[in-house]
Design goal:
The protein has ten helices and 13 strands. With 242 residues, the chain is α/β, with parallel strands linked by helices.
């Protein structure tokens, strides 16, 4: 019998890499996984909504939710696979406990990443945010700040450069890595699987339980993939959440 074709849209790293890794495993189970590569963040959602592909794997939940809202799309997460973690770094202290009262922490100034950074600092126990703020939290939403920390809001890409001038900074993985910072080695506090920013395998609403989709999820959530991630990304640029 002919293999069932499943087309999954993905951005090259690490998403398409992980899918290509499990192609043969899926073939053994009767599925022909076709990875369709995209280099932007808009077309893979349009292709999924239009039914040109069966699933996509490139985005985190807040991005998917805002896309649904803006475009009137019907995309849902079928499974969380990995996170590309944001972390707190410092050149001045070795642990968050060492942060003195009145320390300055640099955080990204764009809406998406500022909320993400503040949620991370809340998870680290440094601040409390108004729960209504959610992922759009800003410094104005801080309801408790026992260490009287000061926040310096800076363009995300510039954070590695100012790290030496502040007490700590919350930096996205894609900017930390080229600057020689490793979440695994240098991060004082790193996003984990409870983060809303987990990268998901996404499908059109109603297709979550299709056998082909479930087969892809099972293949991705395998020891093989977990091992590949830890070997390929030893510095914690990508962390499996399963």
């Amino acid at each position: 019998s002919a293999a069932t074709v499943i087309k999954v849209g993905a951005t090259p790293r690490p998403h398409a890499e992980l899918l290509n890794l499990v192609k043969d495993d899926l073939k053994e189970n009767g599925y022909d996984l076709q990875v369709v590569e995209f280099t932007d963040y808009v077309t893979p959602n349009k292709a999924l909504e239009d039914g040109e592909i069966d699933a996509n794997f490139f985005q985190h939940l807040p991005y998917m939710n805002s896309f649904n809202k803006e475009q009137g799309y019907h995309l849902v997460s079928a499974a969380g696979i990995h996170i590309e973690p944001m972390a707190v770094y410092s050149k001045k202290v070795k642990s968050l406990e060492e942060l003195k009262n009145g320390s300055t922490i640099a955080i990204p100034n764009d809406p998406t990443n500022e909320g993400r950074a503040l949620l991370l600092l809340q998870e680290a126990g440094l601040i409390t945010l108004d729960p209504k703020a959610g992922i759009t939290a800003t410094v104005q939403d801080i309801t408790s700040n026992p260490k009287k920390l000061k926040f310096s809001e800076i363009e995300a890409a510039s954070l590695p450069r100012v790290l030496a001038d502040v007490d700590a900074a919350v930096i996205n993985g894609n900017y930390a890595i080229p600057a020689g910072l490793s979440a695994a080695k240098d991060g004082l506090f790193v996003e984990g699987s409870s983060s809303p920013y987990v990268n998901v395998l996404c499908v059109k609403e109603g297709n979550e339980n299709l056998p082909a989709v479930q087969a892809v999820i099972k293949a991705l959530k395998s020891d093989k993939v977990k091992k590949y991630i830890s070997e390929k990304y030893p510095n914690g640029e990508v962390v499996a959440v399963f």
